[in-house]
Amino acid sequence: KRLTSKSKIPKGLKPLPGPKGYPVVGSVPDVPEKNSFVKFAEWGKEFGPIYNTNLAGSNHVWILSDDIARDLLAKKGAIYSDRPHIPALISDNRTSAQYLPLLSKNDGWTRQRKFANVIMRESENALFHRYPETEAKRMLVELLDDPSRYNHALESFISRVTCRLAWGHSEASDELKQRARELLIGVSPTGALGNKLPFLMSLPDWLVPAKAWERRRAATERKFFEIMQGEVESDLKEKKAPKSWMRTFLENRSKFGFQYELEGAYAVGMHGIAGALTIAAPMQTFCLAMCHYPQYLPMLHEELDRVCGDRLPRAEDRPNLPFLRAIIRECLRWRPPVPTGIPHYLTQDDEYNGYFIPKGTTMHPLEWAIARDPQLFPDPEAFNPLRWVQPEYPTYKEPLTQYPTIINITQFGYGRRVCQGMTVADEDLLIGIGSIAWLFNIDRLPGDVSTPPTEPAVVTDPEVVENLTLGLNEKASLSSEELNAGMEEPKSPTKEDILISKYSYPGTYPASAVKKTETPKPVEEKKVVKIDPTLDFTTLLIAKPLPFQFSLTPRNTERAQKARTVFQEGVERGDYKGSREFWGADQGKNSPLGWGKV
Ligand code: HEM
């Protein structure tokens, strides 16, 4: 929607405040790609808890207060529950009935939300078929074997659980990660080129590689969903299909009233993708928080030892693990996985407190700021799980057998569009984080120079800076930072390029500060590099801490042995299978289907 000119504002109402911006592009040049949510929160200090930005001619309103978000997005849900158009997707996200989170408030959305309610309730009642407990054992052994690939192990844990929930087995978990990663790039404002330069999408494919990339992504996804549905169908016929969302769909097909042949395949697949995308982020944040706030891990160990003793945590332990729930709750508050929120779209002119909000405005509940309201969260920048379990804090709530909980918190959105997967996230995080803490000590490496977030670390040694980037781009890792999919054959980024995109906000560093050359540089050329080690996150819609180095060691040999034994028992029962390639060994590089270069 074009920005409404002042003359169109109804009498008696004012326009919302906001940054002035520049002609044509509006405020786009003022928004950094890295940690844009920090900039949007800073503008809130200047313009108040609800303000307007013009981004390349479109009207975007940012909401920084939970009360205002509720007043508008929830109470006035009848007009605030649509979704904006995402230009980089070739099928119109609002009407294609492919991706429930991106659909307009139409019939497709209503029937898929009903379907989502059924599959979520059913799997929740069955304690998610114990899939999180099963996969936690494999994750622990992977972490014991190679702690430096922790990022991969955590993402694989989530992807395998979600894959089992969606289709009954974990074999497609690498493919699911890749599907999730490509879709995330497709929908993120900082991802696919078509979202940055929408006019490209009206040009022919041969002129615009980004468009060809999207066509290939969509075709691969469709084929993947179709294969997965077909396999569960034949397993069902042979009466060997484990419990899954797909099985529920196939056994009750006529009840859901889906309108096109693969709608069920998409409805299930979309939930698989939504799960694979999001839940590893708070687990990675947990590792980050334990490194920088070491006082809390011993408290968590004490609780887990008291409640679980020498066995791994299980779903039934939930009421007895308030401190674990407090840690999880605080991870979501301190580093919200969707820091800019998922936008809603306003379908009618509206007003709020004398301000005019025009129809066609994209509304952003800015979770980053909402989760830092100092009235509710004293000392908001500090990771402090005690705020959930000690009565002197405003967020304390009883009974502690139920609270703290992540169910219905603001990080899952507002009103009619609220997240459908909260209970899955809740279960995965309880079992996933609980199991890691049960087995491991988590610490910064000896000599780690990074300091807590109140004071951004000042690093001058290029060697140190370079080491901080290790671990990028593992196979099928969702944390890869290679963006702009579909552009000209990119040169693989140099370490220098990666650093430039990593640290461009809030610190500054010239490339010369990190360049490694044959001959040592004179000292005066080493410039200061500022890094806040707890804010080094990916730039896509779902923000995850970039891989970092830390020490992950078993608390004692008995526990390590126990983890290996219970995993081995599962292997012998046939609980675990490896991941399958779908498009051949080269991932479909030379065929029309396969992994887009991302
Ligand atoms: C930590 C994990 C997660 C976070 C932080 C998260 C966050 C969100 C947010 C912010 C929204 C938008 C709400 C709004 O528009 O107001 C959303 C929507 C949604 N989420 Fe999640 N989510 C998570 C996990 C999941 C999982 C595991 C699933 C499914 C298995 C899922 C499925 C969905 C769906 C289907 C929607 C769209 C609802 C609609 O548009 O009507 N989410 N989520």
UniProtKB/TrEMBL annotation:
Molecular function via GO: heme binding; iron ion binding; monooxygenase activity; oxidoreductase activity, acting on paired donors, with incorporation or reduction of molecular oxygen
Binding site for heme: C419
SUPFAM superfamilies in the record: Cytochrome P450
Cofactor(s) listed: heme
Keywords of the record: Heme, Iron, Metal-binding, Oxidoreductase, Signal
Any Pfam family hit: p450
Region feature (Disordered): 578-598
Family as reported in the entry's similarity comment: Belongs to the cytochrome P450 family.
Protein name: Cytochrome P450
Lineage: Eukaryota, Fungi, Dikarya, Ascomycota, Pezizomycotina
